[in-house]
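Re: the request from the purification team.
They wanted to know what the chain is likely to look like in 3D before they choose a buffer screen. I agreed to run a prediction and write the result into the notebook, where they can find it.
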Amino acid sequence: MTLPLRGIQIVDFTQVQAYQNKSPVSPSLAEHAGRGGIMLRKLMNTQNEYSVALARIAFGVVFFAHGAQKMLGWFGGSGFSETISGFAKFGMPTAVALFAIFVEFFGSLSLLLGLLSRVAALAIIIEMIGAVLTVHIHNGFFMNWMGNQKGEGFEYHIIAVALAFLIFVRGAGAVSIDHLVSPRDSSRNG
């Protein structure tokens, strides 16, 4: 039971607990995961929002191209070994290179599928902030469209962080695996 109080609702938490125990997520998944199952459901919870899905899929396509360059050498990229060597030339540890490669490649696949998109979004935020603070901030704001700078600026990274933050907060949206397994509530839109 909820009681309206000048725009504020007082919630009967026994009903909230009863709702949380009724999840369409596979009972076997939740049973095997125990408390982890509750966390998994929270990470995958999302609404049927097509605008978020469009942002997630577009971001996933762009990020996949960058990840495939680093992981597979596609789209003119240098591939796995050369990417690690390139990071080493900048004085970065192998762990940082591996993090960037895996986040961009597997994170983009996660976004495209809409599977654990919040986790991918958080990893992308961390990677993008790290890239700005360690490399791109020294090159100024703008991308190096004309080849007049020493490297790329950080404008792309701001957009990437903003999109990733949207996905982190709202979830994967419609047309996603996360949405397929999200708990349903008749009071939610979509």
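For the purification team: Confidence is low (pLDDT under 50) at residues 1-21, 23-32, 186-190.
Please add any questions underneath this entry.
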